[in-house]
């Protein structure tokens, strides 16, 4: 990042440091920058504009720059691989007047375009600035000193063709699997440097402090260089002695060594400024420039792994498009910060730029906050860039991005889109000689196969000597993938020596605001609904699953029972940090019941010393047990990093549901219970509540409290149950009534070793004098079950307004996405979000919720009810989620059982766009093991209406 003085407020200021200012050098030896556009989506500058086709076409008006013109209500929307070919002739004309200071006539002036979609013809005062630029995602510039009028107004004209005249560019980036936009979508500015100047610098700063730089200059007066190193606040640390300087063909090569530096890594992203002065024969400064750098060493060792600073690393990564719903590919520094903070919050350490170089500020933030980056040129599937234009694009990519310490690898296109003739071009421009990969391919030292099934990933031996990291895996269409399956995949990735992690697809749903359709959010069906977060950053459940699974503090699964000794086994899954740098706090807590205030009462809080564990080593820590620990409802363990940011909070229930609910369920006491059997119905009344059951099946038919009907009916229906009823009996006892239904016994099916009879299924209702309703259900055992095990009731969705519960939340779970929740009291309002498709209101209200203790179901036109679950390991099924419209292979649409509100012992997995759940690891298995054939599954509930 260059140090310059500006005439306007500049945007390259990171975390309180304005890297464009210099207090020690006069402006005439620095590069000055003046923006002709805004700096991003939030501060556009109006230019004159004409669009040839579509919305608001055929007339001159104004448009904000930078922007994608579709989002400013011009032209046509196109999702590339579907319909771009019919819009090839769409273009836009831009005009903008600007002033140039009179004293710039002694400077070299360039105009810089950070990104234009896609062919750009630039004129200054009616004259071409240079050849037409092709390629949408690449920075280009023209030297325009001789075209300017100094001290006067100047006219900039730009013609932008949405399609390129180069067929290979259209194949590579205009007919791809993402939204296609037109326009000057990244900033435009003027750059004024002394005539004798440093054109650019390429730096290789290694972890041991050694440094080499290629300094490009056409100066004839330059005779020497002076280098110094400053900290991130521009305070000089040391002058750097040049140990070797050589010159050839406009390039100076210099080597040096810095002392007492700290290396850069994503856990501690230490940055410095390298100051370079170009000196004449009198040692007077001709030009000065500053580059922000990080000292780090990258090695890709064949048959071994990817090493940073001598440490073998694993990518915990995600793919990310440059995108925002209301501005398309035009983003902002603030958005880059927001996105990377979310990635870091998910405990990610890497991002792949899909499928083109990002904005410069995104890479600056990756350097500052700490993320590994794979930088990629834009190609997609079989067609690729022709060699001539491809070489120009590779040069533009590497020259712009070469000095970012965050970039570890270059990607030559995507999914067979690569032109192998370009592989060697990266090294021509990259002084660090970083490796080039072919995403989705076995190439050189790496295997980056996309979307492997779990068993292929774990056991494939075709390329077993390659460093294995899928650059796309667990495709996140709708609610599938991402956190679903990740726990299984990551166990393999972490433990396989040659696995170097992987990159989830992808970060955010690309739902674009359709200015031609009254502002609706459009994901082009199932093409762009793949995010961990929604279009505006709404966090889906997988966000928190990833956060737990990828926590660098890895705690083995633990269950707290009466003989709990406070010991937790832990592994340090950092690559560069000692575990004792992490703060851990333990809280023993109690929760209010359904009628409480939802406040968490902390019984005891203490800091937990973590052991001295180097990266990738195991140990244990102890949590002190306070005297009253068994009276707590849960233990919370919260880990925070050295920046004070939460790594994760783990929660552990202390009591089983039956013991927790004792304090919430009111004792029945004395009172009358009346019973009437007539017309096939059993009617029982207690404390003003009337229950009606079927005499034939004992299923609940109606609940009335006074004159208010509560539409909780038709249950308990036992799933997949075909046994006939043997008997139903009504027992009138003191202060209560029992209704007991016993089903006929059923022999085991042929083929079983033993033909011992199963126990009978039983449904037992108990109505107490205070109106409480107990339900006990016994379902005969079977070791291996594919269908649902549990019971269900009816409750119209139209009558539900929300729920409050004690259990895991606030997000729903799938069998292969159980992590990321927290055990406590939660409250969600009703919504009908279809994940990634509509609503984008999270958490989703409907689905399966784990570890149910109690739940208060809120009614719209009724009082609802509270249910206490006294059985361990029970899931609450709340209504049936609406299925997404476009899931042709039914992989991310989960079949729900009958009924509306259910209590189940097993739940299904969810798949991805490319795989069913059972192909994604053991947790996606459709079979469930329930243990002893002779012991029935019991479900015990208490209802309070």
Task: Using brief descriptors, characterize the structure shown.
Jelly Rolls; 945 residues; 5 domains; 68 strands; mainly beta; GH; 10 helices; Immunoglobulin-like; TIM Barrel; 6-stranded antiparallel beta sheet; 37% strand
Describe the fold and architecture:
The structure is a single chain. With 945 residues, this protein is mainly β. It has five domains: 31-194, Galactose-binding domain-like (Jelly Rolls, Sandwich); 198-293, Immunoglobulin-like (Sandwich); 333-549, Glycosidases (TIM Barrel); 561-653, Immunoglobulins (Immunoglobulin-like, Sandwich), CATH 2.60.40.10; 674-944, Beta-galactosidase, Chain A, domain 5 (Distorted Sandwich). A nine-stranded antiparallel beta sheet has the order 54-55-56-57-68-64-63-60-61. A hairpin with a 2-residue loop joins strand 54 (725-733) and strand 55 (736-743). Helix 3 (333-345) runs parallel beside helix 4. It is elongated and about 110 Å long. The N and C termini lie far apart (66 Å). The model is unreliable at 1-25 and 748-758 (pLDDT under 50). Residues 61-194 form the Glycosyl hydrolases family 2 sugar binding domain. Residues 302-518 form the Glycoside hydrolase family 2 catalytic domain. It is an enzyme of class 3 (hydrolase).
C-alpha Rg (nearest Å) = 33 Å
Instruction: Give unreliable regions as ranges.
Output: 1-25, 748-758
Helix content range? under 10%
- Note the quaternary state here: single chain
CATH architecture field of the largest domain:
Distorted Sandwich
Q: Residue-averaged pLDDT, rounded?
A: 93
Q: State the shape.
A: elongated
- Into which percentage range does the β-strand content fall? 35-45%
Ends apart, CA distance between termini = 66 Å
CATH class of the largest domain: Mainly Beta
CATH topology of the largest domain: Beta-galactosidase, Chain A, domain 5
Quick one: how many beta strands?
Answer: 68
**Class by alpha and beta content:** mainly beta
Domain count, please report it.
Answer: 5
Largest sheet: 9 strands, antiparallel
- Side by side, the strands of the main sheet go 54-55-56-57-68-64-63-60-61
Total of helices: 10
């Amino acid at each position: 990042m260059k140090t310059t003085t500006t005439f306007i407020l500049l945007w390259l200021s990171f975390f309180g440091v304005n890297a464009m200012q210099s207090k020690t050098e006069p402006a005439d030896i620095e590069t000055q920058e003046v923006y002709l556009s805004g700096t991003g989506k939030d501060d556009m500058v109006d230019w004159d504009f004409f669009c040839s086709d579509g919305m608001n076409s055929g007339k001159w008006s104004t448009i904000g720059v930078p922007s994608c013109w579709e989002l400013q209500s011009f032209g046509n929307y196109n999702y590339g691989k579907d319909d771009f070919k019919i819009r090839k002739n769409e273009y836009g004309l831009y005009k903008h007047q600007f002033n140039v200071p009179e004293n710039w006539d002694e400077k070299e002036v360039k105009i810089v375009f950070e990104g234009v979609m896609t062919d750009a013809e630039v004129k200054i005062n009616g004259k071409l600035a240079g050849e037409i630029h092709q390629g949408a995602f690449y920075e280009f510039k023209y030297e325009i000193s001789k075209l300017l009028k100094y001290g006067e107004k100047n006219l900039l004209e730009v013609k932008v063709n949405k399609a390129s005249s180069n067929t290979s560019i259209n194949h590579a980036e205009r007919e791809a699997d993402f939204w296609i936009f037109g326009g000057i979508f990244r900033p435009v500015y003027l750059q004024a440097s002394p005539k004798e100047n440093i054109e650019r610098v390429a730096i290789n700063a290694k972890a041991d402090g050694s440094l080499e730089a290629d300094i490009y200059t056409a100066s004839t007066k330059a005779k020497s260089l002076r280098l110094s190193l400053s900290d991130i606040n521009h305070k000089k640390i040391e002058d750097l002695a040049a140990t070797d300087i050589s010159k050839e063909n406009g390039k100076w090569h210099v080597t040096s060594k810095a002392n007492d530096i700290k290396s850069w890594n994503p856990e501690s992203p230490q940055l410095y400024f390298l100051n370079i002065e170009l000196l004449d024969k009198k040692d007077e400064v001709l030009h000065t420039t500053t580059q922000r750098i990080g000292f780090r060493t990258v090695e890709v060792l064949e048959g071994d792994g990817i090493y940073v600073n001598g440490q073998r690393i694993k990518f915990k990564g995600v793919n990310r498009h440059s995108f925002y719903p209301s501005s398309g590919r035009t983003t902002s520094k603030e958005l880059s910060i927001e996105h990377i903070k979310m990635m870091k919050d998910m405990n990610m350490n890497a991002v792949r730029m899909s499928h083109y170089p990002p904005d410069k500020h995104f890479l600056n933030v990756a350097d500052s906050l700490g993320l590994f980056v794979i930088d990629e040129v834009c190609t997609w599937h079989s067609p690729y860039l022709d060699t001539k234009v491809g070489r120009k694009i590779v040069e533009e990519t590497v020259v712009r991005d070469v000095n970012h310490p965050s970039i570890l690898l270059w990607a030559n296109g995507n999914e067979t889109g690569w032109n192998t003739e370009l592989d060697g071009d990266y090294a021509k421009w990259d002084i660090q000689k970083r490796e080039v990969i072919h995403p989705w391919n076995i190439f050189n030292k790496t295997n980056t196969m996309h979307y492997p099934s779990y068993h292929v990933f774990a056991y494939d031996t075709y390329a077993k000597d390659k460093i294995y990291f899928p650059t796309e895996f667990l495709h996140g269409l709708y609610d599938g993938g991402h956190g679903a399956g990740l726990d299984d995949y990551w166990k393999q990735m972490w433990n396989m020596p040659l696995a170097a992690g992987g990159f989830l697809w992808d970060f955010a749903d690309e739902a674009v605001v359709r200015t031609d359709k009254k502002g609706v959010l459009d994901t082009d069906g199932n093409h762009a609904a793949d995010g961990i977060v929604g279009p505006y950053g709404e966090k889906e459940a997988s966000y928190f699953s990833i956060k737990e699974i990828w926590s660098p503090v890895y705690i083995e699964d633990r269950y707290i029972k009466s003989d709990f000794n406070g010991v937790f086994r832990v592994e340090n899954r950092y690559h560069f940090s000692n575990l004792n740098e992490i703060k851990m706090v333990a809280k023993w807590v109690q929760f209010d019941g359904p009628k409480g205030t939802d406040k968490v009462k902390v019984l005891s809080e203490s800091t937990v010393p973590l052991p001295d564990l180097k990266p990738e080593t195991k140990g244990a820590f102890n949590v002190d047990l306070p005297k009253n620990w068994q009276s707590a409802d849960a233990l919370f363990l919260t880990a925070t990093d050295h920046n004070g940011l939460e790594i994760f909070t783990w929660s552990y229930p202390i009591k089983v549901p039956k013991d927790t609910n004792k304090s919430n369920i009111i004792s029945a006491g004395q009172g009358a219970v009346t019973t009437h059997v007539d017309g096939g119905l059993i009617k029982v009344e207690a404390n003003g509540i009337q229950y009606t059951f079927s005499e034939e099946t004992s299923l609940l038919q109606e609940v009335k409290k006074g004159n208010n009907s509560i539409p909780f009916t038709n249950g308990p229906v036992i799933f997949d149950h075909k046994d006939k009823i043997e008997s139903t009996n009504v027992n009138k006892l003191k202060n209560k009534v029992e209704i007991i239904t016993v089903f006929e016994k059923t022999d085991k099916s042929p083929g079983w070793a033993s033909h011992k009879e199963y126990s009978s299924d039983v449904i037992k209702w108990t109505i107490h004098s205070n109106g409480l309703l107990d339900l006990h259900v016994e379902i005969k055992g079977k070791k291996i079950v594919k269908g649902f095990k549990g019971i269900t009731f009816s409750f119209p969705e139209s009558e539900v307004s929300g729920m409050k519960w004690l259990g895991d939340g606030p997000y729903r779970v799938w069998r292969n996405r159980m992590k990321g929740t927290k055990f406590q009291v939660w409250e969600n309002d009703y919504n009908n979000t279809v994940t990634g498709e509509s609503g984008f209101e999270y958490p989703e209200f409907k689905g399966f919720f784990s570890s149910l203790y109690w739940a208060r179901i809120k009614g719209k036109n009724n009082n609802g009810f509270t249910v206490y679950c006294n059985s361990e390991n029970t899931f609450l099924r709340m209504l049936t989620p609406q299925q997404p419209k476009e899931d042709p292979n039914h992989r991310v649409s989960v079949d729900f059982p009958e009924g509306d509100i259910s209590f189940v012992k097993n739940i299904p997995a969810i798949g991805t766009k490319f795989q069913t759940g059972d192909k994604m690891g053991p947790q996606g298995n459709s079979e469930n093991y329930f243990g002893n054939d002779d012991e029935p599954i019991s479900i015990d509930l208490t209802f309070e209406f």
